[in-house]
Amino acid sequence: MKNLFNIRKTLVIILGFCIVAACDDKLTEMNINPNGIDPATANPNLLMPAVLAPAAQMYLDLGFGDMAGTVQHTQKNGWFSGHNHYDWGARDWRGWYGIQRTNALLEKRAIELENEFFEGVALTMKSFIFGNITDLWGDAPYTQAVKADQGGEEFEYPAFDPQETIYLGIIEDLQTAASLFASADTEEVNESADLYYGGDPEKWQRFANSLLLRYYMRISEKRPDVSKPGIEAVYNSGMYIESPDQDATLDYTGGANDVWPSLYTSVDAFTRWQAAGTLIEQMTSTNDPRITV
Hints:
The protein has helices spanning 2-30, 44-64, 66-70, 81-85, 94-112, 116-137, 153-156, 163-182, 201-218, 224-237, 267-270, 277-285; strands spanning 74-76, 140-141, 160-161, 273-275. It is mainly alpha-helical. The longest helix has 29 residues, at 2-30.
């Protein structure tokens, strides 16, 4: 009888183990997206718009959102104290780092495919995104950022880098990007995936060099030893943005949810934003031709 009891007990344990194991297998299967893209085979042409579009939209928001209210470029009419009186809550950088994660995959795939164009785009956008982060917040995670998939606590909780380290890293990446665009082959590039320049490496090179000028200026007072020869080199190359048709722009594509800016979905919403008196007075006093716009 005792042996029979032990056999039954063993069978229950084995059966229970099998049920748990089966459940674990099913749960694992349920957490696999059958429509998901394997990062190991992701096409850079599909990754690129997921970086370029949100980066442009977030940058635009700085020009008409609360940041524009802070510097008195815009004002809202009536009942919008957050914009008009600076009483909004804290702003974080999750959106910027979210774009950077996708961009890191774009850079990884570009290197694996040995494609200079995609790598140049990834390095340029990496610089643009981190440049905005450090411009707005100062010290920030940089060298250890967006690497949590590599394992290690230092990547799960990345350390803050000094702003100087970030700017110098940005400059180095932009120099690399500009040199990559100079010799990039665009045979594998889908022009429609490049929302800024339609796969034109020369315009991307001008954009990268123009960002270089921006960040050389950021460090010019503290590191003239780096900024002065850098600015001279870009200027002497002649490869920088010289006219509006070379600007990095994201045009309206015609989608139902793609409006400029995104909140201008009605006449009433549009009229909420006004040019601030401070800006108008400055433009008027200097006869700024943009005042008509």
